[in-house]
Write a structure and sequence with these properties.
Elements lengths: L10 H7 L12 H13 L7 H14 L4 E5 L3 H11 L4 E8 L13 H7 L2 E11 L2 H17 L5 H15 L7 H6 L7
């Protein structure tokens, strides 16, 4: 339905324009689920088929040559995308961005190596958990990605030098504790 939005500020507009599927595994949770329930009394032909969504999501992951996940927050969405990657023996890349801590037992608090133990992320995958507010950090990562590819006039040497320098700066946003540095793949110079 993104093509009907006709608003370049909408993520759904760009997903529709680039043929990128959007899944919402928790659409029936909370108030939206209640509204769907009430609307179904007005329209007997109204159907939300969650099984078709999960089949499409799992099929997409299973058929992917490479799979990477960027998970903002946790909960149902994190579980669904990682479970879909279980169907292909794990994701090749994973970035978690959230403020969840391991000790509280929440899904968001679990580290990527927990998903590795279940086969949801491959043993040899590249993964990182960024302990930060996703609403702050994710726009910075997106902006950095666009900046990197916009300035392609730089020589290869300058690109590599600049990338290394900027990557070190990005680590400042993660604010890892000393305990995290010991248990993660983060370089000790961070």
């Amino acid at each position: 339905q993104g093509e009907k939005i006709n608003n370049e500020e909408s993520i759904y507009y760009w997903c529709a324009k680039n043929d990128i599927p959007v899944f919402c595994p928790a659409i029936t949770d909370g108030s939206l689920g209640d509204m769907l329930f009430f609307f179904s009394y007005k329209r007997d032909d109204f159907i939300v088929d969650l099984i078709q969504d999960i089949k499409a999501l799992n099929r997409t992951a299973f058929r992917a040559k490479k799979s990477g996940v960027i998970i903002l927050g946790g909960g149902v969405v994190k579980h669904h995308i990682l479970n879909a990657n279980l169907m292909r023996n794990g994701a090749d890349y994973a970035v978690y961005i959230n403020t969840g801590q391991e000790y509280d037992g929440s899904d968001a608090g679990a580290r990527p190596n927990e998903a590795v133990s279940w086969g949801k992320i491959k043993l040899n995958a590249q993964f990182v958990k960024v302990h930060a507010d996703a609403s702050f950090v994710f726009p910075l990562l997106v902006a950095r990605t666009f900046f990197k590819y916009k300035n392609n006039q730089l020589t290869e040497d300058k690109k590599n030098e600049k990338t290394e320098e900027e990557n070190k700066c990005c680590l400042l946003y993660t604010s890892p504790s000393p305990r995290d540095r010991q248990k993660s793949r983060m370089p000790s110079s961070a």
